[in-house]
Amino acid sequence: MKERGKTYKTEKRAIWRVFSYLRYYPKEIALNIVFNLLSIIFNLLSFVLIVPVIELFFGMAEPPAAEPALGFSQKELTEWAFYHIYLIKEESGLWHCLFIFAGAYLVCSLLYNATRYLGLFYLSPIRNGVLQRLRDDLYHRITILPISFFAGKRKGDLISRMSADLADIEWSVVSTLQSLVKDPINVVVFAATLIFISPKLFLLFLVVLPPAVLLIGKIGASLKRNSQKGQQKLGEMMSTYKETLDNLEVVKAYQREDYRQEVFERANGQYSQRMMKVARRREAGSPLSEVLGTIGLGFILVMGGMSVLEGEIEASVFILFVIIFARLIPPVQALVKAYSSLQKGSASAARIYEIIDADERITEKPGAVMMKGFERAIEYRNVTFSYQDEGSEPVNVLDNLSLRIEKGSKVAIVGPSGAGKTTLADLLPRFYDPAQGEILIDGVPIKDMNINSLRSNVGVVSQNCILFNDTIEHNIAFGLERVDKEAIRNAARLAHADDFIEQMPQGYDTMVGDHGSALSGGQRQRISIARAILRNPPIMILDEATSALDNESQQAVQAALDNMMKGRTTIVIAHRLSTIENADMIVVMERGKIVEKGTHKSLLEANGMYKSLLEMQNFAKINTK
To answer: Which of 14, 78, 350, 461 sits at 20 to 30 Å (Cα–Cα) from 602?
Structure first.
């Protein structure tokens, strides 16, 4: 029960946080309120004009013999108006009087529609601006959250939050702004008018309010629960969809199309069933409010009719009361619908703010120093790093590890899978932070450095080279502004990429496709290397940069890497041990610890793990020939 109450408060707070973006639009909100209020007044006046017309045609009341004093009660105001209307009728004639009322009604109608449009006109920048700012905040948060945040997340669910949940907020929350601004004013003005006309009849309407509020509240709570579950099911369905797209070759190779279809259909069916419940409950609110309003109208017709017969109220005034009461029902219905929409959108808003409020574990200290270069050494001091899934004990990936890397040296990190090689490298540009210990560059802890300046001094080339669906030129120049084209070409030449780029249909302006799908693995890797060369960082991390390539591509890429490593401090995570024989230092890791350290020659002489790994790799080569 406590957990449910906490979830409810979180969702309620999320809705108000969406509305907090309204603070950026004070002028538009003020104008929207003003024009909405004016439209309501002109709409009300157009109905008030009906009473004199009824009086004129049917002579339902005799005018006062003498001009009454103008008062503020319903009776005094009605008598004063009737006296002057009949005076105009006597002086100008019935038809002239009717033309006056028709013209007044037309003016009120035109002013009502004009002010109503202006209200919507000033609402448009508010609606679109709120969504724009929310999308910006969500995307910004995704870019600054640490990589560890996404390690346990399904990408399909994240995409669902950025697309479906934002769309749901747009239609369920932001689209209710007009109702939330205009309809309460509408209800207050119309209700005040009804109270002014007849407090007794208005009190009868209040009899049906408590049960209506209770029923609508129950529908809203059910709607919110089902909406939250529905959005979760949508995230599962999107994850299935993305997994299939990303692994389509595997699905086809293992003939698992039918199985994946079943998985998708199951997720799709569960989502559809849940959203069906949401739709049914949402649509129940409006008819329910109309039924309750009709019951209230029935009470009023009976009791009002008796009041007319007993002479407590004029028949024409009673007709006006009924007309205005009927006009009160639509804004009440709109508020009920807006409430239901808010309940539905609250689940989506909570899912969005789960990401926006996620702990930014990689934080920058106030007054962080700028890293202006690299002069002496990189040092890992007693570094421990752990991964931890929810509900499980932390598992050490690095365990009290210490390592010193001198400037200008080439250091290779080797070891079996799961030894912690990539984690060791990822800690240097602060993709993660260690649980214990610290990393220093030239004696300064990297936690004390400006993050952007640190990362601008560290280049990364991994086996999973990431290219964007853009031109080759823009991919090479990624992260830099106003780069000279000749510098881009020079970086490509050093990366042994210039020849194949020139042979592409549009040369450097060729689009590489999604994830670089228009290029081969070796070509993608060389463009990735060219990007690192252009950035020209003093420290370079090569994470198994040639492990996924064939021999021919590997040779071309290795030549490019050799060019790039000249004059730089390089950390090489090696899969093919033959590529790191000339390293200044080879570090052998196992289970998060350094078990051996030395040159290729000294490690062979030590007859330890490095020699065993090398012999296994050579044995595998012989068997594959």
So the answer is: 461
Could you tell me which residue, 181 or 58, shows the higher pLDDT? 181
DSSP-assigned letter for residue 506: T
Instruction: With beta carbons less than 8 A apart as the criterion, state whether 165 and 159 touch.
Output: no
Cα dist from 275 to 232, 233, 263, 269, 336, whole Å: 11, 10, 19, 10, 19
Note the pLDDT tens digit of each residue in 559-585: 767 777 777 898 988 777 767 888 889
> Which DSSP string corresponds to 253-308?
HTT-HHHHHHHHHHHHHHHHHHHHHHHHHHHHHHHHHHHHHHHHHHHHHHHHHHHH
> 246: closest CA among 23, 514, 588?
514
> Comparing 599 with 544, which gets the higher pLDDT?
599
Which three-class secondary structure state does DSSP give residue 65?
A: coil
Q: Which of 44, 194, 55 is nearest to 109 (CA)?
A: 44
Identify the band that residue 624 occupies on the pLDDT scale cut at 50, 70 and 90.
very low
- What is the sign, positive or negative, of the torsion defined by CA atoms of 283, 287, 292, 293? positive
Instruction: Read off the amino acid at residue 264.
Output: F
- 390 Cβ contact partners less than 8 Å away, ≥ 6 residues apart: 152
Q: What is the mean pLDDT of the chain?
A: 76
Contacts of 286 (CB under 8 A, 6+ apart): 333, 336, 337
Place of tokens 């697309």: 163
- Residues near 239 by beta carbon (within 8 Å), at least 6 away in sequence: 154, 155, 156, 157, 160
Task: Find, among 614, 579, 578, the residue nearest to 596 by Cα.
Answer: 614
Amino acid at 137: D
What's the token pair of residue 466? Answer: 């990431």
Burial zone of 81 (CB within 10 Å; 0-12 exposed, 13-18 middle, 19+ buried): middle
Range with the poorest average pLDDT among 143-152, 285-294, 439-448: 285-294
